[in-house]
Write a structure and sequence with these properties.
It is built from twelve helices and six strands. It is of the alpha/beta class. The protein has a six-stranded mixed beta sheet with strand order 3-2-1-4-6-5, with helices on both faces. β1, α2 and β2 form a beta-alpha-beta unit. α6 packs across α7, α7 packs across α9 and α7 crosses α10. About 5% of the residues have low confidence. It has three domains: about 160 residues, P-loop containing nucleotide triphosphate hydrolases (Rossmann fold, 3-Layer(aba) Sandwich), CATH 3.40.50.300; about 70 residues, Conserved Hypothetical Protein Ylqf, Chain: A, domain 2, CATH 1.10.1580; about 30 residues. It is globular, with a radius of gyration of 21 Å.
Length: about 300
């Protein structure tokens, strides 16, 4: 999947995070519970050092609960990481995060010391809504689209916590290719910069393989379609999204499928498992190694491309 989306404010945010990271006591990384690995920021493991991290699996009410438990256990295998699942419609649960912060960084739990926390997350993971709940006031702009927060800000919270908010941003190269699709399916990438029908086709193929029962129930299908295009045709017939001649209006069907997935109407669905991600990364590493070996064998060809 080819996506060219790295606006200037995201380049600025990347530099700001690198500068502030050594000054904070705690990192709060907001993830989308439906794509815990894909929504991780690669700068966090790169720059955190020994700084403790709380990984929030946000929107967990939209995710497969069994997979959320598996992801919590998987993420906490790494030292210094605590993973918790939250939903945006449970303010009391979100407020408990303040107490957890002081537990994770006990040496800062004193009246005269500020606990400095950096909160980060890719676009549309619900970071702004989380901040507003923690602060008991509207501080961060919210919106159900990518790239709402544009500026870094400092927010004073209860328990002597100062929260450094950063704009949500994606990294320049989305790899493996599946990451780009998963981000687009959840809405972390603006629909205007992706091929909408292509993204919906990817979602249809995944759902047919991993959540067929939910598709059958939601779209009242008598039998399971054998391919993604058959599924799109079946949804078009059920929802009246047909052009002249009975041909499916693919764009309308794509909107239905993606919007019903994003809203949770389709069901509790997680788009990746730890095993799936590890397999994808292993394949990617192998591909990179082969590419590096070829470039090593043909250095002249590599130089010509750079000119």
């Amino acid at each position: 999947m080819s996506i060219n989306w790295f606006p200037g404010h995201m380049h600025k945010a990347r530099k700001e995070i690198a500068e502030i990271m050594p000054q904070v006591d705690l990192i709060i990384e907001v993830l989308d519970a439906r794509i815990p690995s894909t929504s991780e920021n690669p700068l966090v493991p790169e720059l955190r050092g020994d700084t403790p991290v709380i990984k929030i699996l946000n929107k967990s009410d939209l995710a497969d609960p069994e997979q959320t438990k598996a992801w919590q256990a998987y993420l906490e295998r790494e030292k210094g990481i605590k993973a918790i699942a939250l939903t945006q419609d449970n303010p009391a649960q979100i407020k408990e995060l303040l107490t957890l912060c002081t537990r994770v960084v006990p040496h800062r739990n004193a009246q005269d010391k500020l606990l400095r926390a950096l909160i980060c997350g890719v676009p549309n993971v619900g970071k702004s809504t989380l901040i507003n709940t923690l602060a008991d006031r509207i501080i961060a702009k919210t919106g159900n689209e990518a790239g709402v927060t544009k500026m870094q800000q400092r927010i004073r919270l209860e328990n002597n916590i100062v929260l450094h908010d950063t704009p949500g941003f994606l990294w320049p190269k989305l790899e493996p290719e599946d990451c780009g699709y998963r981000l687009a399916i959840t809405g972390a990438i603006k629909d205007t910069v992706v091929e909408f029908e292509d993204v919906a086709m990817y979602a249809a193929e995944f759902l047919l393989e991993h959540y067929p029962a939910l598709l059958m129930k939601r779209y009242q299908l008598d039998e399971l379609p054998q391919s993604e295009i058959e599924l799109m045709d079946a949804i078009a017939a059920r929802r009246g999204c047909l052009r002249k001649g009975g041909v499916a209006d693919l764009h309308k069907v794509s909107e239905i499928l993606l919007n019903e997935y994003r809203s949770g109407t389709l069901g509790e669905i997680t788009l990746e498992t730890p095993e799936m991600v590890e397999q994808e990364l292993a394949i990617l590493a192998e591909q990179k190694a082969l590419k590096a070996e070829k470039e090593k064998e043909n250095p002249k060809k590599k130089k010509r491309r750079r000119r």
